[in-house]
């Protein structure tokens, strides 16, 4: 069998591990195979890096696999130029290393990427790039996960590990909606993950579909580059100012939640928003029946933190439109019967998890949406050494909480096994030294 075996760290001398691996080697398929003594982490975004760092700090080595050619590929390759963190930096830092003190409250995308690069360097995390996980399955006979990856030029590889950490993110794939006439439209149609700047749309009529944080910011960027954006709003949406009463809206909400019930905090947020922004329904942005925090808790739907888009909607620089009925050659027909001409369409329709496409497991992860079935804060751990980091719908704050818990949990098993290994080696030594 063409099986390349690399056993690293302490387990290189672990007789139990070696015996199991020998059994595995003789039953494995023809692709090269790497036996990983510690956890295998899929994804080198903030979640994968945070978990690898927390494990490292506890003396547990791990391997990180990443489908693209860099860390934090979502941030480096799939976000627009004007992006900044929406939440103040103290809510976005990863465990064990804060942001540099000279960074602004809301770091730019490049500053965040620089921080992550420095983080990976500090904890000596060197992901194996250009490896897309195509399949991972638990082998109950062996008691190990078998993880298959596809590299450049289709080169396949198999990893065998005791612990598998899923860190592929809530935003692994772009959501592209079905729209009648999509093949007919003559202009550019692209998802926000491919939008960099409004510069290339200067002077053009652009329809932005979706009013989450991406759609709102892309509209603002288009305005700032003298394009003519319209925004499709198909449902209700909470728009809140990014800051209120001199503090970040997020920070203030977290603080108030320590003392007040969620409904009262929501009431407070809505009153202050109304005072600062006015009645958003007047501009075509009806608010949901539930308050912003309650809605976030129940459905995961993030409120929009306004960074100037609302003013452009009020001034008429951004037009609000209802749902799309169908696309035509150079125009869009809306459900209210109106038809308008557009040169380009930008889909700000969000993202989805890709876990069901590669993880052959249905207990922990839902096949429907690719998220852990158990809600926050209990979704991080499954059976048989399976973990999830970064699926809390709570951004980087959720990532940090998951990463710390996972590292603590794996450390316990790792130390227990180290004790067994030591005892086993001792008894072997005693046997060999006795006459
Ligand atoms: C435009 C935008 C702005 C955001 N701003 C904020 C913010 O300000 N604050 C905040 O807290 N959150 C923000 N988020 C949420 C964002 O999800 C988190 O900030 C963060 O990126 C999550 O990290 P992650 O590692 O879980 O996922 P990701 O950053 O998506 O990383 C997952 C990694 O897994 C890799 N991967 C996926 N599938 C496979 C596979 N099959 N095999 C191998 N590798 C794979 C991907 O290539 C990727 O590198 C934002 C999201 C977007 C889209
Ligand atoms: N600066 C920042 O920090 C920043 C910037 C951008 C994004 N983000 C974060 O990144 C994540 C993704 O944000 P996102 O804005 O890309 O996605 P999102 O929050 O999922 O929003 C997608 C939007 O598209 C709408 N939509 C989906 N399909 C549609 C269709 N067929 N027709 C019309 N509308 C449709 C949705 O409407 P419904 O609500 O009706 O489904 C929703 O308004 C979020 O966590 C967000 O907070 C952060």
Automatic annotation (TrEMBL):
Enzyme Commission number(s) of this protein: 1.-.-.-
Keywords: Auxin biosynthesis, FAD, Flavoprotein, Monooxygenase, NADP, Oxidoreductase
Cofactor(s) for this UniProt protein: FAD
GO molecular function, a single term: N,N-dimethylaniline monooxygenase activity
Gene3D superfamilies linked to this entry: FAD/NAD(P)-binding domain
InterPro entries noted in UniProt: Auxin_biosynth/cation_transpt (IPR050982), FAD/NAD-bd_sf (IPR036188), Flavin_mOase-like (IPR020946)
Family: Belongs to the FMO family.
Descriptive protein name: Flavin-containing monooxygenase
GN (gene name): LOC111285252
């Amino acid at each position: 069998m063409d099986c390349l075996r690399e056993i690293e760290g302490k387990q290189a001398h672990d007789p139990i591990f070696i015996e199991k691996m020998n059994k595995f080697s003789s039953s494995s398929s023809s692709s090269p195979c790497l036996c990983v003594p510690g956890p295998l982490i899929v994804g080198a975004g903030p979640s994968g890096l945070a978990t690898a760092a927390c494990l490292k700090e506890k003396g547990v080595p791990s391997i990180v696999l990443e489908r693209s050619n860099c860390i934090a590929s979502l941030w480096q390759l799939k976000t627009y130029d004007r992006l900044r963190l929406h939440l103040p930096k103290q809510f976005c830092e990863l465990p064990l290393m804060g942001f540099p003190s000279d960074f602004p409250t809301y770091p730019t995308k490049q500053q965040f990427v620089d921080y992550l690069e420095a983080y990976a360097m500090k904890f000596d995390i060197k992901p194996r790039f250009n490896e897309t996980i195509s399949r991972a399955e638990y082998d109950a006979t062996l008691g190990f996960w078998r993880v298959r990856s596809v590299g450049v030029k289709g080169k396949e590889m198999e990893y065998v590990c005791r612990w598998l950490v899923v860190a592929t993110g809530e935003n692994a794939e772009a959501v592209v909606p079905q729209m009648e006439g999509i093949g007919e439209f003559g202009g550019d149609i692209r998802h926000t993950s491919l939008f960099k700047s409004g510069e290339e749309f200067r002077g053009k009529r652009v329809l932005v579909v979706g009013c989450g944080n991406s759609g709102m910011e892309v509209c603002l960027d288009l305005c700032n580059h003298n394009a003519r954006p319209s925004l499709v709003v198909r449902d209700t949406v909470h728009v809140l100012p990014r800051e209120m009463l001199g503090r970040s809206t997020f920070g203030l909400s977290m603080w108030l939640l320590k003392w007040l019930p969620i409904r009262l905090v929501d009431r407070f947020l809505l009153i202050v928003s109304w005072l600062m922004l006015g009645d958003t329904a007047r501009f075509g942005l009806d608010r949901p029946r539930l308050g912003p925090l309650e809605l976030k808790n129940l459905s995961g739907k993030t409120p929009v933190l306004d960074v100037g888009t609302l003013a452009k909607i009020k001034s008429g620089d951004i037009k609000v439109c209802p749902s799309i009925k169908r696309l035509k050659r150079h125009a869009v027909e809306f459900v209210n019967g109106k038809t308008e001409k557009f040169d380009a369409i930008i889909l700000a329709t969000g993202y989805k998890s890709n876990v069901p496409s590669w993880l052959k497991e249905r207990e922990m992860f839902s096949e429907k949406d690719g998220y852990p079935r158990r809600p926050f804060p209990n979704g991080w751990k499954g059976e048989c050494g399976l973990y999830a980091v970064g699926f809390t719908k709570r951004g980087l704050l959720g990532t940090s909480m998951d990463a710390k818990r996972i590292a603590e949990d794996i450390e316990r098993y790792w130390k227990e096994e180290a004790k067994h290994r030591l005892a086993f080696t001792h008894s072997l030594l005693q046997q060999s030294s006795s006459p």
